[in-house]
Design goal:
alpha+beta, nine-stranded antiparallel sheet, six-stranded antiparallel sheet
Length: 336
């Protein structure tokens, strides 16, 4: 009996020892496995995180750049008035105009005429300053709807720095004026105008004409006189270009020209008999009706010069004086 008890005790001790060893090994194996898994997971997570972070940053940056570029482009486009927001443009320069640059004029201040391609951007008067080889104009507007102008296109204005915009200045009469340099008279000047109400840039074409300049505003060597052209006294013909008015009237071209004592005279024949007098260089000249056309003999101040004249028409309900200009082309002169 005692042996049985001792054997049973020995078996139990062996079993306990074996059980204890098994638990210790299991713990060791589990710890190793856990450590391996943690390292593997950490390493995988780190690699995945780095790769994902780099790719995501690149994609996000590229997408952000594209979005910013697109938004910037859209914003710029939104600052420019499209064709549906503008009235039909009018021509301000014709093929018969020749640019008048600063070197052709004497320094001084002159009243001139400013033309605009848009009836919504009306120039009521303009002042020209010629100084130091530059032409500077101050145009007075017929309204107060524009805050800035820029010498260029709307696209150029949007891309330009704001300090390059030309703001309006209010004159003593409360009118808005803009002052800027131009390259020449009788030529197109591109201008972008910023609307106060619409907050958009509008495309405008301007032209400041030389037709109101007095003859003594020109340097002598810039004028095509009979003496400069070495025209002897006699009879000639030359093309004449009429500008101004409604565009319905015309004059006969070429015109008959006579040089007498170095002075130039032209016979002007209108397309109708509706003109009863003209005012040329301050002189009023009465019409002679020849072949049902109003005919005048006027003094030509110079060739290639837009000479301002006034013609009174009786075609309306009451007589009305209309401002025109006549330009005689020296290159077309022929002897009779």
């Amino acid at each position: 009996m005692r042996r049985k008890l001792i054997r049973a005790a020995l078996v139990a001790a062996a079993v306990f020892a074996l059980a204890g060893c098994g638990k210790k090994n299991d713990k060791k194996e589990n710890t190793t496995a856990s450590t391996t898994v943690e390292v593997t997971e950490a390493t995988t997570a780190e690699v995945t995180t780095e790769g994902t972070s780099e790719d995501t940053t690149a994609d996000t940056t590229e997408a952000s750049t594209e979005a910013t570029s697109e938004n910037s482009s859209d914003n710029d486009a939104g600052k420019i008035a499209d064709s549906s927001e503008t009235v039909e443009a009018e021509e301000v320069v014709d093929a018969n105009m020749s640019p008048i640059t600063a070197d052709m004029l004497k320094d001084g201040e002159y009243d001139i005429t400013g033309l605009s391609s848009s009836s919504m951007f009306k120039i009521v008067s303009a002042k020209l300053v010629v100084k130091d080889g530059k032409l500077t104009v101050t145009m007075t507007m017929g309204g107060k709807g524009y805050l800035y102008v820029y010498p260029g296109t709307p696209e150029e204005a949007v891309a330009a720095a704001e300090d390059s915009y030309i703001p309006f200045v209010e004159n003593e009469a409360g009118e808005h004026t803009f002052t800027f340099e131009i390259p020449a008279l009788d030529s197109e000047v591109k201008c972008a105008a910023f609307s106060k109400k619409k907050e958009k840039w509008y495309d405008r074409s301007l032209c400041f004409t030389s037709g109101d300049l007095p003859l003594d505003a020109f340097n002598e060597d810039a004028l095509s006189t009979a003496a400069k052209l070495e025209l002897a006294d006699g009879k000639y013909t030359a093309d004449v270009i009429l500008a101004g008015g409604s565009g319905r009237a015309s004059v006969e071209s070429p015109a008959e020209i006579e040089v007498k004592d170095g002075e130039i005279y032209a016979t002007i024949r209108w397309s109708s008999s509706n003109y009863d007098y003209m005012i040329v260089d301050g002189e009023k000249i009465e019409a002679e009706i020849i072949d049902e056309k109003s005919t005048f003999v006027i003094k030509v101040l110079a060739f290639d010069y837009r000479q301002a004249v006034v013609a009174d028409t009786t075609a309306m309900s009451k007589p009305h004086e209309i401002e025109y200009s006549l330009k005689f082309d020296s290159k077309s002169i022929e002897s009779k």
